[in-house]
Amino acid sequence: MGAGPKATGGSAPWWRDAVFYQVYPRSFQDSDGDGVGDLRGIVSRLEHLTWLGVDALWLSPIHPSPMADSGYDVSDYTGIDPTLGTLEDFDSLAAGCRRLGLRLLIDLVPSHTSIEHPWFRLHPDWYVWADEPPNNWRASFGGPAWSLDEGSGRHYLHSFYPEQPDLDWRNPEVRTAFAEVVRFWIGRGVDGYRVDALDRLMKDSGLRDDPPASAEPPLPLHPEQAALDTIHSRNDPEIGLALAALRDAAGEALLVGEVYLPSRELPRYLEHLDLAFAFEFLHAPWSAGEIGEVIAAAAKLERVAWVLSNHDFPRLGSRLGEEAARAAALLLLTLPGSSFIYQGDEIGMVNGADEGIDRAGRDRFRHPMQWEPEPGGGFSEGTPWLGLTDPERRSVAAQREDPDSLLALYRRLIALRRELEGGLDVIDAPPDMLAYARGAHVVAINLGVEPAPAPASGVVVLATSDESCNLGAVPAGEGLVIRRAVV
Ligand code: NOJ
After folding, report:
1. Catalytic residue positions?
2. Whole-prediction pTM value?
3. Weakest-pLDDT range from 54-68, 119-133, 236-250, 470-484
4. Residue 310 alpha carbon to ligand 1 centre in Å
5. Cα of 127 vs its chain's centroid, Å
């Protein structure tokens, strides 16, 4: 096994307290007027990321794809989708990141390929087959997890859309093929991978039925999956076999797992990965008690990646309400460890229209970035692939001019984060107040509807709004960071 999470030695790895910024390439910046964001567009906007102060960016998939699942159906793992650019454009992007001191992560999609990937015809034994559907497994977006392949007359497994056949990671040739992919991009300058759908990578070797659900699933699932206890169709105990192969190929490169499971299930994955997203945190109801419990449990693992939104779930501004966006930023960026920001959250973007491109209804979370306060948002000179939502109401340019904007708050929080030390210590506070210490600092967020007394005394070094600076009380919906008085 290569140098993995256990081999980091004395000094902390670069990602330990890093802030990551998720770029959804098709919606970030278009450089050629075709209405679709691209790699050159990303290069032209790197300054936004350095101005914000983030450490790294993660690009959602950039490889050739028939787009049945917006790029998560890859048909060539070592190419660049022509709508996004070329390998040379990728090299320029990697060089630009290096010059600016930004680390670069790309998305690795190992659980399935596109059905149009040549492997599906050339190496059918790399996939999972049965003459007839052998069990009751359901796909993540609904429908059976087995589809008929007309050519062979057999059924193949797909944990997601039928256009995404699942690979068989028990087959050593699959592991070798992915090791080559992992090394290819590391050779081209990536610092790591966000690894897709890892809880789906390994399933029961006996393909046993999932039993009927005995309780609500710990994280939201499609209702057809939620009706089952998905204990055989995913999260197989033999996952280490696959993860060890990925780790071996990645060496010291960062591996951040998308493991859609509660924190208690993550240790098995963290034996090989550096980080795993904290999805319980993303889905926690906006209440002090529940968030407090979730962050305390996740922080114990020490290597979770804090995340409140991404391209799969409602925009923060819509999910929590626009009022809560400032407190959510404070929370996300003051927790110990690494935190992920989804593009557009820093200006408070809300859900856009469902334009019927993604069959699972996720267009709403993927609308183009709003750079300028004008109808096209400065995103593209052509017709955008998804319409702009409300650039006149919120944009990077307008918020950069305003020291009280949400964008300015994100920037201040990222700077302040460098001064926060120590682990997470959830402290006693009035009901509805979420409060935790980070060394000499105390973070207090009032999630109630009445002002509440601050849980510590000292100097307020950051507040979500001017009013909150009046130490003694934290106004409803606001939060602050206090540097405790040294006694
Ligand atoms: C998780 C990705 O974030 C999502 O967008 C995709 O549909 C599934 N994995 C399948 O790859």
Report:
1. 196, 252
2. 0.97
3. 470-484
4. 10
5. 27
Mutate-to-test residue for ligand 1 from 69, 282, 342, highest number of ligand atoms within 8 A of CB: 69
Residues 6+ apart with CB under 8 A from 463: 469, 478, 479, 480, 481
Burial of residue 449 (CB within 10 Å: 0-12, 13-18, 19+) is exposed
User: pLDDT class for 288, splitting at 50, 70, 90?
Assistant: very high
Cβ of 342 less than 6 Å from ligand 1: no
From CA 41, how far away is CA 324, in angstroms rounded?
A: 31
Q: Please, which residues bridge with residue 338 across strands?
A: 305
pLDDT at 9: 53
Q: 479-484 and 458-463 as β-strands: parallel, antiparallel, unpaired? A: antiparallel
Distinct helix (H) and strand (E) counts, the chain: 14, 18
Q: Is the CB of 72 under 6 A from ligand 1?
A: yes
Q: What is the pLDDT of residues 114-166, one digit of tens each?
A: 999 999 999 999 999 999 999 999 999 999 999 999 999 999 999 999 999 99
The tokens for 404 are 């009280």
Q: Is the CB of 197 under 6 A from ligand 1?
A: yes
* DSSP states along 124-193: GGGB-EESS--S--B-TTSSBSEEEETTTTEEEE-SS-TTSPBB-TTSHHHHHHHHHHHHHHHHTT--EE
pLDDT of residue 7: 43
Start-to-end CA distance of the chain, whole Å, equals 48
- Can you tell me which residue has the tokens 């169709």? 233
Ligand 1 pocket residue status of 229, Cβ below 6 Å: no
